[in-house]
Specification:
Blueprint: E1 4-14, E2 23-38, E3 43-49, H1 62-73, E4 80-87, H2 97-112, H3 119-130, H4 136-141, E5 144-150, E6 153-159, E7 166-172, H5 178-183, H6 191-210, H7 216-219, H8 226-229, H9 236-245, E8 250-253, E9 260-264, H10 268-281, E10 286-291, E11 299-301
Parallel strand pairs: 3-4
Antiparallel strand pairs: 1-2, 1-11, 2-4, 2-5, 5-6, 7-9, 7-10, 8-9
Bound molecules: adenosine-5'-diphosphate and the ligand N[C@@H](CCOP(=O)(O)O)C(=O)O.
Length: about 300
């Protein structure tokens, strides 16, 4: 009887303002994946929840491609599988659905063949797949992650802030693929803008690691991606202002957008409602969710 493995992987919010392609946070919104490898040559992919009817259910599926990458790396060969995914992370909204899918495939395949690869090896594979480490790092390790690629190897440090930090995410009713949101970015930036972002990123990590959240208003400022992506997210500045007016510490684009995220320790629901109303005033329907930091990252659960 082929063994079924089941994994749970968090969605993630990347960048956190100035930390473009480097900072990420695992969030309490999850996708689940069941994987059963078999000796047939039939690939059967069942998709429930977000992405049903949209995500490819053949060899093009990135979960299956991630599974194949682990099999190739570990010298195993299976052409048949049953994959069942139950997705809560919305697609192409800036909450790391592609990273969650890749990490789910890697972690499940590794477990299915006896767990030969370490978390660090899975992180390196995941970074190659995704092209940037900031979503896959928190999806694998949980918490707040700082990552960089050095000599073709992905490095990551993870920490948790002291105190409870709530994340209010306004989810507008339109998609924005990360690819499209990267295409609007310039090839080069001004020296002053680079310096501006270095100071904000340094302050951001200090504020998050020390629980000095009062610095977030300044620390979430960014000049490397948000100004260029603003045109793709109608009402962005109004939504930030609405959240801040309700007492949020600060706000940013979640990942490549279009979700916008506000950080707070109180008043989360009024902040979410104000963000939705500000989107509405710009003719954009939206909903909101209140998320916390997922501490564990991708994990095996009982099948
Ligand atoms: N569970 C999944 N299984 C397979 N592919 C997925 C899954 N979730 C997302 N994807 C792929 O990732 C794409 C979205 O990735 P991306 O544009 O990076 O946005 P984000 O990661 O912010 O949600 C989807 O259009 C789809 O092709
Ligand atoms: N650093 C990336 C993050 C993309 O995150 P996603 O959740 O939108 O996939 C970028 O800003 O392009």
């Amino acid at each position: 009887m082929p063994k079924t493995v089941k994994v749970c992987v968090p969605g993630t919010t990347a960048n956190c303002g100035p930390g473009f392609d480097a900072v990420g946070i695992a969030c309490t919104i999850y996708n689940e994946l069941e994987l059963t490898l078999n000796r047939s040559d039939k690939l059967n992919i069942e998709i429930l929840g977000e992405g049903r009817g949209i995500i490819p259910s053949d060899e093009q599926n990135i979960v299956w491609q991630a599974v194949q990458a682990v099999l190739a790396r570990t010298g195993k060969s299976y052409r048949g599988a049953h994959i069942k995914m139950t997705n809560n992370v919305p697609l192409a909204r800036g909450l790391g659905s592609s990273a969650a899918a890749i990490v789910a495939g890697l972690v499940a395949a590794n477990a299915a063949v006896g767990g030969p690869l370490s978390k660090q090896q899975l992180f390196e594979l995941a970074t190659e797949f995704e092209g940037h480490p900031d979503n896959v790092a928190p999806a694998i390790f949980g918490g707040i992650t700082l990552s960089a690629v050095y000599q073709e190897k992905a490095h990551c440090l993870r920490f948790l802030p002291p105190g409870v930090l709530e994340m209010v995410v306004a989810i507008p009713a339109f998609n924005l693929s990360t690819k499209a949101a990267r295409q609007v970015l310039p090839e080069t930036v001004a020296y002053q803008d680079a310096v501006f972002n270095i100071s904000r990123t340094a302050l951001l990590i200090g504020a998050l690691s020390q629980g000095a959240f009062g610095h977030l208003q300044c620390a979430l400022e960014d000049r490397l991606h948000q100004p260029y992506r603003e045109a793709l997210i109608p009402g962005m500045r109004d939504v930030f202002q609405a959240a801040n007016k309700q007492g949020a510490y600060g706000s940013a684009i979640s990942g490549a957008g279009p979700c916008l995220i506000a950080f707070t320790q109180q008043n989360a629901a009024p902040i979410g409602e104000a963000m939705v109303a500000a989107f509405k005033a710009n003719n954009i329907d939206a909903t909101y969710v209140i998320l916390h930091i997922d501490q564990a990252g991708a994990r095996l659960i009982d099948a």
